[in-house]
Specification:
By secondary structure, the chain is α+β, with helices and mostly antiparallel strands. It contains four helices and seven strands. The protein is 27% helix and 18% strand. A hairpin with a 2-residue loop joins strand 5 and strand 6.
């Protein structure tokens, strides 16, 4: 086997849960090889670097071996190498941390945990005091 379809390979190495989802990603221009968007029928070979955009970041995978059959997760490192740059993971971490502040439309109501994290993040005082000081006139002053 010298070449295999990109949609079959991405499904086989568990980048996508189904082949249909892999095809849809190709149609939406989220899969690239060398900075060029590819169709699902594109044939790949060993050594190709595939970029998959799963918002908010772009993952990069190097093809180490070819397969058309879905495999267990333990076998995946024999077929691909994750070469995603660290700055992409920083974007993912920042998005995960700030996810409760910038909620996407349709995500539903925030949970209690989300509310508490938001209050902790936006609490201006942050000193733990929950009462106000009375700075009225002192004794003898009016």
């Amino acid at each position: 086997m010298n070449e295999v379809r990109i949609d079959k390979w991405m499904w086989a190495v568990r980048i996508f849960k189904s082949r249909t989802i892999a095809v849809e990603a190709c149609k939406k221009n989220r899969v690239m090889i060398g900075g060029v968007n590819v169709k699902a029928s594109r044939m790949i070979k060993v050594g190709d670097v595939i970029q998959v955009r799963k918002p908010p970041i772009t993952f990069s995978f190097k093809v180490l071996a070819l397969t058309e059959r879905r495999m267990g997760a333990k076998l995946v490192p024999d077929y691909m190498e994750n070469v995603t740059t660290p700055d992409q993971y920083e974007i993912l971490e920042m998005n995960r941390i700030s996810g409760f502040v910038d909620r996407a439309r349709g995500m539903g109501r925030p949970t209690k945990k989300d509310r508490r994290e938001l209050e902790q993040f936006t609490d201006p005082a942050g000193d733990g005091f929950d009462f106000d000081f009375d700075f009225g006139p002192e004794e003898g002053e009016e």
